[in-house]
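From the methods appendix. Each design record in this collection lists the tokenized structure first, followed by the designed amino acid sequence. Records were kept in a plain field format so they could be parsed without special tools. The example shown here is representative of the layout used throughout.

RECORD:
FOLD TOKENS (299 positions):
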């Protein structure tokens, strides 16, 4: 299949690589063109502008950092909005606000194209291993056409109906729950440490008994050892997602006190110049609030 791909960060690059491995033809664009070099060496075609990846009536995948970047590559003067055209499919895989999806769905619909929201659960290592969980919502025919593309990037695709906002809100819900898990583990380990119990022992027992899920095991190891670099998901992006959660909640008058706490932790960490660290580094705030010294270790 002939596919355009926009956004070659740590997630997008791995996803595009898997599309090449699956035999798809790729045209790629990224703000920093050097990130496309190895993909181009393996057969991808480089594009000078976002619109240049879009073939009329084709498929374009976007995996960009935030709402502003997504709107720019679609609605901007060099965006795909005018180029994709009738029968085209925009497969939007970024974590963005549901309102952004609704806006772009209407824009594409007016031009005869389809917008499919397909955000993912998984970090760069999962993306590289084709182990992402993908949430898919949009027009039924477009989702069916895009299915082979999604299957080339993930281990399971969840069909969520025709409203793209449903995929976005579910993605935000998942990230919100991860924020809660990070806070709970950080508080539990810090409480144990205040009583002289090693952080590693707390997580060893809890993850081998009542909390064996991968989310506890993987994040727990990082928090126990204060290993936050290199980041698998940058704390600054976590703050962006926490703000999206609270914005979505305010739009429907939904109180979310735990989300407010998580957003405060992330905001404080960014203020302490920790935005480049993994988002589990909010655990350092918890330790410091308890009077403990917390220094990040290299992974």
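DESIGN:
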């Amino acid at each position: 299949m002939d596919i355009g791909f926009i956004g070659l960060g740590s997630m997008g690059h791995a996803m595009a690589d898997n599309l090449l491995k699956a035999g798809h033809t790729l045209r790629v664009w990224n703000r920093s063109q050097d990130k496309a070099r190895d993909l181009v060496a393996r057969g991808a075609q480089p594009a000078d502008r976002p619109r240049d990846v879009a073939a009329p009536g084709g498929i374009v995948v976007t995996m960009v950092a935030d709402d502003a970047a997504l709107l720019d590559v679609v609605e901007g003067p060099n965006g795909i909005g005018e180029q994709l055209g009738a029968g085209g499919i925009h497969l939007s895989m970024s974590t963005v606000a549901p309102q952004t999806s609704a806006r772009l769905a209407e824009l594409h619909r007016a031009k005869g194209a389809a917008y499919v929201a397909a955000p993912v659960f998984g970090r760069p290592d999962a993306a590289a291993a084709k182990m992402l969980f993908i949430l898919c919502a949009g027009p039924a025919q477009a989702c069916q056409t895009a299915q082979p593309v999604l299957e080339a990037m993930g281990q399971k695709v969840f069909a969520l109906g025709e409203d793209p906002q449903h995929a976005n809100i579910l993605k935000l819900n998942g990230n919100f729950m991860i924020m809660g898990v990070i806070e709970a583990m950080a508080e539990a380990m810090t409480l144990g440490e205040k009583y002289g119990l090693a952080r590693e022992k707390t997580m060893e027992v809890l993850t081998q008994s009542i909390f064996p899920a991968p989310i506890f095991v993987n994040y727990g190891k990082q928090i126990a050892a204060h290993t936050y670099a290199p980041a698998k998901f940058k704390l600054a992006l976590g703050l962006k997602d926490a703000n999206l959660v609270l914005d979505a909640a305010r739009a429907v008058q939904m109180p979310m006190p735990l989300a407010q706490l998580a957003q405060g932790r992330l905001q404080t960490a960014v203020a302490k110049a920790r935005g480049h660290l993994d988002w589990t580094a909010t655990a350092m705030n918890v330790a410091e609030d308890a009077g403990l010294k917390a220094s990040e270790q290299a992974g």
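APPENDIX NOTE: Residues 164-194 form the longest helix (31 residues).
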